Structures are given as C-alpha cells and as structure tokens.
Amino acid sequence: MNILITGASRGIGLATAKKLASKGHSIGLFSIDEDNLNTAIKDKAFKKAHKKGKIIYGTMDVSNADDWDNAISLMFKQLGGIDVLINNAGVLITGNLPKTDLEQQLSLIDVNCKGVLIGCHKVASQLTGDKYSKIINLSSASAIYGQPEIAAYSASKFFVRGLTEALNIEYEPMGVRVVDVMPLWVRTDMTSGIEVTSIDRLGIKLTADDVAKTVCKLVAAPNKKLSATHYPVGLPAKVLNGLAQVTPDAITRWVNKKVGA
Hints:
Elements: E1 2-6, H1 11-22, E2 26-31, H2 34-40, H3 47-51, E3 55-59, H4 65-79, E4 84-87, H5 102-123, E5 134-138, H6 151-170, E6 177-183, E7 186-187, H7 197-202, E8 206-207, H8 208-220, E9 230-233, H9 235-246, H10 249-260
Parallel strand pairs: 1-2, 1-4, 2-3, 4-5, 5-6, 6-9, 7-8
Helix pairs in contact: 1-8, 4-5, 5-6
C-alpha cells in the first residue's frame, strides 16, 4: 500500500513509518521540520525501502493547502497513488490558558484542526477506494473529556474526534473508512520536559512504538473488519474511554479533575 504520513520526522509519525516500511509498504514522509526529516530518512529502517524505490519525503506545513497539493502530487508521481492517509502532525502547548502565548495557541489550532481538515478534504477523493482505503487521524485520550493545563490541545483533539465520527459516516459510500487513535500521554520529544498535573499523577507509560503498533494494525485491516471508530491506546485510555460512555457527566468531571487538576 501507498501511505502518506504527516509529522513523520520524529515521534509517532517516524515510528509508524519505520514499522510500515519494514512490512513492505510504500511510504511518503512529510514534515515541516526539514532538518529532522533529512536525518530521519537516513535511518537504517528505510534501507530496503530506498533500494526498492518505496519511500519519498518532503517538507510540508499541514495548515497550508498548497503544501497538501504538492505532497499528493508527489505521492502520485513517485509511488502511483495513495491508499492510506495518516494525519499525525500535531502541536502541544501546556499551561493555564491565560498565561500561555495566544499566537502559539492559535498556531496549535492551525496545525491540529486546520491541518487535519485540509488533509481529509484533499486526500479523500484521491484514495484508491479499495477495501483498505482509509484515513487514520491521531486524536488523544484528552478528547474523552476536556483536560486542564492543555485546554486548547484537548479541544483540538475533540475537533479531530468529531470530524472523524462525521467522516466515518460521510465517506463510507466512497469506500473510505475514517478512524482515529486515542493514546494517553506518549513518551516523545513533544512531551519531553513538560510539566502537567496529569503526567505527575498518571506518568507516561506509552512509547511512540506502542502507538505505531496500533496504527499499523489499522492500516493492515480490511475496512470491513474495523467495527469501531475510536481506538484508545493503552489500558488507562481504554478504561477512561469505557467509563465515559456509561458514567454520569458529574462523575466523569470529578475523575478528570482528580487526575488533571
């Protein structure tokens, strides 16, 4: 399969690209971080993919529609098309909202919301429409209930969750499945050195490889086998997601307040 991955220069995106390349898929790695991308693409995990012409890469600002057009064009020119889109690019800003930089928060919304929306808009009609054609969005366990100290990030992942649910229905007649992955805190560069109460209380148990493993399973699964829309990663996220489905809002709020504030 031909797979386009955003935010692929490090973290979950890079870990996913490595796993998919090892399974023989053709991968397009795209990131705004050109320096890290140029380093990442030289990893020995991509050696066979390079030899077989199964890997391409390019710089990309996901909030820029023209960059999406360029990435899609490159995928078709070099790999022959797109079977799967993995909307992985994301930004995290922590702190009580009034004390954070507004421009940074607005940039977060551009990447986490606008970027995913443009990708879903641009790529859907370009997918092959076979039994594996899908869009996998990276959401978060913070989309289960709004989280203090990461309010804008949490809200952006609610956007991803809602968009995923809507397009899961809307794109079905096109033969395209839309799902999301919802990990709790993941040990990556994004979370390195940050101070958030929920991390102090829950810790960071997941690695980028843990999330990549789930994403790769979704890529490989025929669409008819994907019975769910949301895929929590890790036991805590699965428990929190399950409880949120049956627990009264007041109790859910209390639990999240104990964890995150």
